[in-house]
Amino acid sequence: NKYLVHEDDLLHVVNELFNAGAEAISINGHRVVGSTSILCDGNIIRVNGEIVTVPIEIKAICSKVIVNTLIRPGGYLQLMADEGVVVKIDDTRESVTMPKFNGVYNFTHLVRGEG
Questions:
Q1: How far apart are CA 40 and CA 68, in angstroms?
Q2: Which residues contact 85 (CB under 8 A, 6 or more apart)?
Q3: I need a labelling partner for 12 at 20 to 30 A (CA). Which of 3, 4, 47, 100 fits?
Q4: pLDDT tens per residue, range 38-80
């Protein structure tokens, strides 16, 4: 199991990216937004209800400073690499095309305030 990528791994990497200031993130072409679900379903991972397969590609619109925070010694990507997961970072691209979110925002818990 240590050579597999789990939902927790994706959640850690996505959270590190957002916490470091990434403007947009996608996983295998699925845009990550505030309501995105990343779930394990047996031996597969679902992002926004859609199956993602290996290799898993996480794209982010971010600065080189953010990339450096991800590859720091002791960071989560380093921990994954130490466990045998192949981690590759391509920070040479000048532009990244980010897919739009194809889901539906559901505001069932939104209550209109008085005022």
A1: 28
A2: 2, 3, 4, 5, 9
A3: 100
A4: 998 888 899 988 999 888 999 998 887 777 888 888 888 888 8
